[in-house]
């Protein structure tokens, strides 16, 4: 899915947040070896600090907003209440004209004190245009840096997709081995191992769609082995290559071992569960 925020970062400083106010300044960053620009969000106990970007939203639609945050004290961001302005919250996120309840945020620790914070909201009949963070004067006095705004339809944040003037979709990542002899490749048989985590969605929820995790094959996909997850987080494996009676593709239910770990043995173009 696309990042619907057309400028996800802040290379031009605070001007990249057309709607802004309170104690905020441009920040030069060095986060995760990737982010170099963001907003420093302060606190003075009197004025709300906010930095909003403009987005076009559909009515009555579920969206997930996410940002990358580093608290100035090095600890994790904290959210204790559903009311955005509550004293137990470090900040809140705004979508349209609504505040997402901070106590429903998902906070994921990355590295070097950086956290990705996300929250989900269904828009009202007439949503406003704002997307961003707000630190109310009644929130905690903890200050922080923020960047990497993302909004996408559905119930989860997904991979970060940077944008620089237009909505963008994450491109596929391809790895190619040109000399199979260097990895001891056996043309007759082999084993593929995949370990991955996916959000568990329910039928009817926006975003409950199948998605591939990794595909091994030739460039024309005449022969391939695909591993992924179908609706409601059911793992699958599909093989295509040597003829399989009745079908050129064969999905296989995989064996789960500890926290969604699957072993995928493959022999002569057929895919079978491990014993």
Gyration radius from CA atoms, angstroms: 22 Å
> What is the molecular shape?
elongated
Instruction: Profile the largest sheet.
Output: 6 strands, antiparallel
Q: How would you classify the helix and strand content by structural class?
A: mainly beta
Number of strands: 20
Helix fraction, binned, reads: under 10%
Number of helices: 0
| Order of strands in the sheet with most strands | 3-4-12-6-10-9
Describe the fold and architecture.
Residues 241-275 have low confidence and may be disordered. The chain is built from no helices and 20 strands. It has strands spanning 2-3, 19-21, 24-31, 35-41, 49-54, 62-71, 92-96, 98-100, 106-109, 114-122, 130-135, 144-153, 168-169, 189-195, 211-217, 224-229, 235-240, 250-252, 261-267, 270-271. The relative contact order is 0.16. The protein has 275 residues and is mostly beta strands. A hairpin with a 5-residue loop joins β16 (224-229) and β17. It is elongated, with a radius of gyration of 22 Å. 0% of the residues lie in helices and 41% in strands. A 6-stranded antiparallel sheet has the order 3-4-12-6-10-9, with no helix packed on it. Strands 2-5-11-7-8 form a 5-stranded antiparallel sheet, with no helix packed on it.
